[in-house]
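Researcher: For the record, we're logging two predictions in this thread. I'll number them. Prediction 1 follows.
Model: Prediction 1, sequence and structure:
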Amino acid sequence: QVQLVESGGGLVQAGGSLRLSCAASGRTFGNYGMGWFRQTPGKEREFVAAISWIGGSTDYADSVKGRFTISRDNAKNTVYLQMNSLKAEDTAVYYCAAALYSSIRTRSAGPDYWGQGTQVTVSS
């Protein structure tokens, strides 16, 4: 089974930046769609950003477009989320996700794999 491990979360002041990392291990087959969701207690889990493992095409939620940048390092099996101009409403647990041969955003069954999450807290 593929395992995803997030890191880089923490406490940051509003307007600051954080970079999240997600390292994938285990068996992989061809192309993956990878990216990030986030969830605040009492709220629905929401899509944040996605990237194609082979082509590198990206997709962002409107709420983070222009502030967050997703990237990947295929050699390291790692995807990153650079978060700039952070706002209090960005506070959430951020989950890395992966979907085999599809987008984590559009796959009807949802992602195949999930990380355990990393807490991001933005103070206002």
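Researcher: Logged. Prediction 2.
Model: Prediction 2, sequence and structure:
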Amino acid sequence: QPELVESGGGKVQPGGSLRLSCEDSQYGWDLYNIGWFRQAPGKEREAVACITSDSRHIKYTDSVKGRFTISRDNIKSTAYLQMDSLDPEDTAVYFCAAEGGMDPQPVCALNRLSYDYWGRGTQVTVSS
């Protein structure tokens, strides 16, 4: 089962960029669809993007389309979230999650209830 660790968070000015990484050391990582989520203080955790195990299907929430890019490297057991043109509204703790199961779905879900395994999160702060 995956054990996920996020990295790459930090403080950046509006308009800047960050790349988040999510690494899993467990063999079999390539069986799992992966999602990125974020949670701002006082708000519910929301889906940002997801990617299937074979990278053939990708979804983004409307607010990040054209600015964020999700990708994965199954050989390295790592998923990425490239974030460009960052806005203060993007400030949140960012989590990666694995959908779970040994038979991944051909499409991924922008729904936190679809994910069984979660990292601890990494803080992203966008301010001047």
